[in-house]
Amino acid sequence: MPTTLLNLREQIRLDYKLEGDPNFPITRLTLMINQAQRYVQIQLNGLGFKKWEKIATLTLGPNTFVNKSLMNAALSLTPDMIESPKSIRFVEVGDGTTYGLAYEVSEAFAYEHLNNSLLAPTIKDPFFFRMDNFIWLAPSTILTGALHYYAVITDLAADTDATQIPTEFVQYITKRVGIEIDAIRGLIANKDNAIAGLSDQITGAWQKFMDTQQQKDVDKKANLQ
Q1: What is the pTM for the complete model shown?
Q2: C-alpha angle 75-92-134 in degrees, rounded to nearest 5
Q3: How many angstroms separate the CA atoms of 152 and 52, rounded?
Q4: 89 contacts: CB under 8 Å, gap ≥ 6
Q5: List of residues 6+ apart from 109 with CB closer than 8 A
């Protein structure tokens, strides 16, 4: 059974004894829940969860970076992309004949390689970096680009809206909200440490989840033999 916004809000009110507390009205709790589910999503993305993968065709145009010719595209074309260090998985690129996969690098890495003929990018060994709300691609001979990225989870608004976080990890939404509540109430000495501990819990739950999936695959193969 899917977990709704109402389910989450009621669970949080019970767990953290919020009934009658004017500091946590419905609108504030809804905002906290949406922020918490995005936090859980980012944690799962970093661990390799693939539920929110998407692809978008880039509209490329010529531009320059440190007087070197590159291709770039506005990231406004993907408004649903989650904002995290690992929001872009890679970019498929091609020049009509040859194709490659571009992975993210820093501006410093790009500058070094664009100014060294031995390290210069090629279609088979391209790269990209993000700057000024654009994605920049090298080499400049790239004609096409397909962006593989993680889309942000849908915010919950109505009481009946169900979270897209898998059931196995829904509890971490309420726990993340709980950290904020306890911090507001002055019950946590170090919020960063509490969040780091929650991240460790999610990692442990992910490992158990993967172990379970692998065991199911083993059992399925055994039953087919």
Answers
A1: 0.80
A2: 20
A3: 7
A4: 53, 148, 149, 150
A5: 127, 129
Q: CA-to-CA distance for 179 and 198, rounded, in angstroms? A: 9
Measured CA to CA, the distance from residue 88 to residue 99 in angstroms comes to: 18
- Residue identified by tokens 């904020």 is 180
What's the rounded Cα separation, in Å, for the pair 44 and 2?
18
Which tokens is 211 given? 């172990």
SS3 state of residue 102: strand
pLDDT digits (tens, 9 = 90+) for 50-63: 889 999 999 999 99
Q: Kindly state the tokens that stand for 76.
A: 């406004």
Strands (E), 132-215: 134-138, 144-150
176-222 pLDDT, tens digit each: 999 999 999 999 989 999 999 999 999 999 998 888 767 555 555 55
Paired with 135 in beta bridges are 73, 130
CB 12 within 8 Å of CB 178: yes
Q: What distance in Å separates the CA atoms of residue 210 and residue 198, rounded to the nearest whole number?
A: 18
